[in-house]
Structure formats: structure tokens, C-alpha cells
Predict the structure.
Amino acid sequence: MTLPFAPGPKPTLPWTNLLAMRKDSLGFLTQLHRSYGDLVHFQMGPGHFHLVNHPDLNREVLVVQAKKMRKGLGLQRAKILLGEGLLTSEDQAHMKQRRMMQPAFHHKKVATYAEQMVRHSMALSDSWRAGQTYDLSHEMMTVTLAIVAEALFGSDVSAESDVIGESLTTVIGAFNALTNPFAQILLKFPLPYTKRIEAAIRRLNETIYRVIRERREKGTDEGDLLGMLLSAQDDEGDGSRFNDTQVRDETMTLFLAGHETTANALTWTWYLLSQNPEVEAKLHAELDEVLQGRTPAFEDVPKLKYTEMIFAESMRMLPPVWAFGRQAVEDFELGGHLIRKDSLLILSEWVMHRDARWWTEPEVFDPTRFTPEQKAARNKFTYFPFSHGARNCIGEPFAWMEGVLILATLAQKWRLKLVPGHPVVLDPLFTLRPKHGMKMVASARN
């Protein structure tokens, strides 16, 4: 018996759904789920798409039938920027890279970055003045970039941090353009936009390859992520090491993934705290009790339970990665329906994290959803800010610790209130950003 397609809107003019998706991505996906259920088939142009929104189906896609899929089109096109890094590589190459990089994100290694996280957060805290207005989107981008740059390169690029930051912003903008169906064609033309992208990649490459060359000449391990990439060996496979191009690709991937998503998660967290004073008060009470006025340290992270719950709930309500895709490499069955080869499956954190079947009053900011008891009782595939399965984010432990320590360091001394009248508009591009930044006024707690 031939399997049917999943239910969905009837075919319309070729680009109707694409235009609707581009006009309001979050609303479009939410309405598809409300109208047609947990597995929805629709077309955008000539392509077949499926919105997947049930924990059992999520598990099928991310774990059980993962070998029948590859990364979505956006990340396939991102190879223009990232090469064959961990985020874009596939199959055996991806498994080998992950084996070789895993030691860099071992619990004991991640712990060594805590001091850097707190030091950069303290420098930011010390620069703030009571009564001044700051764009928290910019502030969080700056501090997370400083942290990931030092974690990757030690002190080798400290003098170039402004150039790196500007170049990364341009490259991240290019990611958003890659979702355009004509992106690969447009990027071949010598337009001012493509020239800026090429110049930004060239500047980043110059810095990365220079540091790689200097490190190889010195032959020393500085204890940072770059040192681990240079010394990484595939002991379980063919014993090979990364060449310079592979190190560059992994470094670019870590640069991008290591600060953009965490910065957005923190920006939304400050916004949500400003709108929920009772949660903010409990956060301050925990910080006062645990830290007793001293600077946070790695040993405090497991004690700052409510702080972590706030960060988790923020990523539920306003997930920095709001959706991601998988492309079918063969026909297969999912939930009793046909998934045709080359179809794109969309899993949306935005839709799943706000589904009232799994989250009581999903529009309410409630960190207690993430107590150990609540987490244990919940299907883990209802919450996936870092994905699940073999391709879950390798830097997840780093991101959790960074989020907790930055929140603790800054909230220990400061309250942040949204500037009255400042427009808070969701901008779901490659990540979920505030379209107009996040203007907030700082006031000292003491």
C-alpha cells in the first residue's frame, strides 16, 4: 500500500507559502501545527516540507531514523562559510570529527574556562554605571565573543578582537541570507553585499591561519581549544590528525556557534527577568545566599540551581535556535506518512516549547518547570535547545556554564529594566534576535 502524505494546506501558487514563511516564520509554523496536527506536509515552491511537532516523532527524526537524513539546506549552504566543520559535515566524517573534538568539551576541560567567563563578565560589570542605558544585545555579544576568543586562542588574538567581532557579525548576517532559495546564485555575483562577506571571511581566515602557523612553529600546547584541535588524534580510527584547513573549519564553527546563540539566550533572559520581578527577586536571593558577596566560581555552578532554571526557561520561551531542518536522503515512513527523498523536515523549538500539551500555561515565564522532578517527569524530546541524538551540540556543557556564570556575575550587582517604550520585536533569522536590540537601564543593587 502506498503511504499517504501527511495532512497540510492544499497546494497554492508556487511561492505563497514561501512568502508567508518569510513574512512571519514563527506565526506561519505555529498556525500549520494548530490547523493540521503533529506532522504537516506543505510545499514552498517546488520543494516538499514537513513540520514535525511531537516528542515521539522528534525522537524518530533525531535518533531512530537519523541515518536517513542529513543537515538541512541552510547548513548545507553554510559550507561556503564554515567549510567541513562539525556543524556542516556528514556521516563518517562527522563521527570522526566529533570523536577527535570530544576531549575539548570534557567536563574537566570545560571547568577550566570558568575563570575566563567570570573575568570577562566582571570587566563588563565594572564598566557599567548606574542610570546608564545599554543595549544588552550588543553587551552580551561583546562578552560572549571575548570569552570564546580566549577559550579558542588564549591571548593570541586579544589585539584583534574588534576586527574579529565586526567580521563575525558580517558572516552571521550571511547565514541569514543563505535561507534565500537563490542564495547560491546571488553569492556568485560581485555585489557590494557579497564583497563584504568575502572580505569578512578573508579577515577571519588571515587571523586563524596566522595563529595556526605560529602555534605549529612553536610546537607548544597553550591549554586552549586551538591547542587541543592541533593535537587531536583519531585514536579509535585511523590515527589521523586535523590538517590546517580542518582546524580552520572547526575554529570558524566554534567561533560562530560559541557566541551568537548564547548571547541571544542571555539577552532574552535579561528581558524576561525585567518583566517578571518576582523571578528576579528569587534570583537575587539565591545569589546572595550562595555567593555571600564574593565573585562566582566554577564550584558555585551546581549550587546556583535557580539561576540555571531561569536560563533553561528563557531558552524554552525564546529559544535562540527557533527551528532547524533535516533533509531526507531516501523515502521513508514517519508517523504512518510518506517522507519523500529530498523533502525537508522542520523541527521547531518555538512551536514545541509553546505546545500546551507538554507545557502548562506556556506563555508564562516559570523557571520551576526545570526542577529535577519536573525534568524527570517530562519527555526529553519536548525540549531541545541544543538538539538531541548524535548531532546534539557538542558545546552544550560550555553554554550552560557560561549562561549561569554570566547571569550570576552581572545580576549579583545589577538590575536591568527595559527602557519604557522600547520596541521588543522578534527577528527570527538564523537565530532569534531582538530586531531593535534590547535597550535597558542599569541600576545598582546596593
Remarks:
- The mean pLDDT is 90.
